[in-house]
Design brief:
The chain is α+β, with helices and mostly antiparallel strands and 520 residues long. Among the domains are: 57 residues; 130 residues, Alpha-Beta Plaits (2-Layer Sandwich), CATH 3.30.70. The chain is built from 10 helices and 22 strands.
Length: 520
């Protein structure tokens, strides 16, 4: 087999009491291509009640037919299962499983022991939910599993053969309205199934086991009897319903006799020889049409029965756990994402910090040079601004002299000392340089008598504008007057020329070089 086609190739198997039927097809969207179809009679020596023996024989039969697909859908015959159409009084999907199981247990009674129940929702009716329920004894499922294991075929799905028949009728383009009732008579050689389908749903189905007979006439006679019995039972419950179309499929010679034998009761019956959605080797199908329908059902992409893995009621505790796990996972992912983004941003910030540090280190020397130049200029400006008002000081000192017949000033010498320089830091203001330059005034003169000199000295001592640094020099013999004197004054207090006298030599911002002076 081409390995490119292995992935979409499916296998359907129906193992009866004596006959093995199988269809291998390539499943496409909405259709299938039949590759192989076989109907093989088991040898009389085979114990068909032994799943191991049947599985070993099946393996050889499939291999002999060239069937290599190892994953199959297994069919259960209608007579071995129970199918019910139920209306559940709820529309909540989480309640379907439990309510369906309870309803089927009531329907089956004592036969409910040891069955697997699956269901498929089929719409809304009268405020409730329509479901089709299928119950299959667990012993049948176990038999299929053991048989498949021995045949080295994996069980993909276990379903009712009837639903393959229903899929064929549903997709049959025969011109009849979709809601019209169709009847399918499926003769397998070992059993007979009647399936009534309308609107894409199985409305009624009935199956009966028949004895396998190699003689076509005898097989057809027993089949006709069973069809008449099943039809009569259905007609009693549905006397007013009209069947739009009846189809029969199976081995051609037998189904022709069946159609002729029940036509007077059922109406015209046609043999299914082809199907618009089943392509490939359809001439080899005959009694395997329902198996092709089971594979066609897979191509329709809709809910299907599978008693091998039936639908269960949701585990609400598990759902809460999963929500908690999801929340924890979301938190973990968020934390991991946050940590990842943070680590990335931190790395970027560190790289930027290193880059800025390198730039700052490179600019540090330039910044320091700029600061030196700035404070050098500010220092010079502060010195230039520290210039006392010498004329005002001269006027203030001259005001202390009595009349010129008693005291004469000979010398007025102003000296500006070097002083100190300091940095002044004020909040919200730029750092500035302040220069304090003490001012010293030397006054020399002559007096007529000692008392005049003492009075002048006392006047300077009492005045708050000046401080007398030297008490003066007592000398005798001046050029004009007999008592010479020398006073060294340091101004302090109000600025020179003000009502209170001269000011100290303190400057802010600029200063002049030391040693400047004035004399009079």
């Amino acid at each position: 087999m081409n390995p490119l086609h292995r992935s979409d190739t499916r296998l359907a198997i129906d193992m009866g009491q004596r006959l093995l039927r199988a269809v291998e097809a390539r499943v496409r969207r909405g259709s299938i291509d039949v590759l192989r179809a076989i109907s093989v009679e088991a040898p009389d020596t085979l114990d068909t009640s032994d799943p191991v023996a049947v599985g070993a024989w099946m393996r050889d039969a499939l291999a002999a037919a060239g069937i290599e697909t190892n994953r199959a859908t297994f069919a259960v015959n209608r007579e071995a299962a129970s199918h019910k159409r139920l209306v559940l009084a709820t529309t909540h999907a989480e309640d379907f499983a439990d309510m369906t199981r309870l309803a089927m247990l009531r329907e089956l009674g004592a036969a409910a022991e040891g069955v697997e129940i699956d269901f498929v929702p089929a719409g809304i009716e009268d405020g409730g939910t329509v479901v089709h329920a299928l119950a299959v004894p667990r012993r049948e499922i176990d038999f299929i599993r053991r048989m498949a294991e021995q045949a080295r075929v994996r069980v993909a799905r276990i379903s009712l053969r009837t639903f393959g028949t229903a899929a064929l009728l549903e997709t049959l383009d025969d011109g009849a309205p979709d809601d019209s009732l169709r009847l399918a008579i499926d003769w397998t050689g070992e059993g007979l199934e009647l399936c009534f389908v309308s609107g894409g749903q199985v409305r009624h189905s009935r199956g009966a086991e028949l004895k396998y007979q190699r003689d076509a006439g005898a097989a057809a006679e027993s089949a006709v009897t069973e069809v008449r019995r099943s039809w009569a039972a259905w007609r009693l419950s549905q006397p007013e319903v009209t069947v739009a179309k009846s189809i029969v499929f199976g081995e051609r010679e037998v189904v022709r006799r069946i159609a002729g034998g029940v036509e007077d009761a059922v109406g015209p019956i046609v043999e299914l020889a082809s199907h618009p959605r089943v392509h490939g080797r359809t001439e080899a199908i005959d009694s395997c049409w329902p198996l092709a329908g089971m594979l066609l059902e897979q191509s329709l992409r809709r809910p299907r029965f599978d008693v091998a893995a039936p639908r269960r009621a949701p585990d609400l505790a598990a759902r809460r756990r999963m929500r908690a796990y999801a929340a924890v996972g979301a938190i973990g992912i968020s934390l991991l994402a946050g940590w990842t983004i943070g680590a990335k941003d931190l790395g970027a910030l560190k790289a930027r910090a290193v880059d800025l540090g390198e730039k700052a280190e490179g600019a540090k020397a330039e910044s320091q040079r700029f600061k030196r130049e700035y404070f050098r200029a500010a220092h010079l400006a502060a010195w230039e601004e520290a210039a006392p008002h010498w004329l005002d000081l001269l006027v203030d000192v001259g005001a202390f002299a009595p009349d010129q017949t008693r005291v004469v000033f000979d010398l007025f010498n102003g000296t500006l000392d070097a002083g100190t320089v300091r940095l002044v830091k004020e909040q919200d203001k730029a750092t500035r340089i302040a220069v304090r330059r003490p001012t010293r005034v030397t006054v020399e003169g002559e007096a007529r008598e000692r008392t005049a000199v003492d009075g002048l000295r006392e006047a300077f001592l009492k005045d708050q504008r000046f401080s007398l640094e030297s008490p003066g020099t007592d000398r005798v013999g001046g050029r004009r007057l007999p008592m010479p004197f020398t006073f060294i004054l340091r101004p302090g207090g109000a600025a020179p020329g003000a009502a209170t006298g001269s000011g100290a030599g303190t400057s802010s911002g600029t200063a002049a070089p030391a040693g400047a002076g004035a004399g009079a």
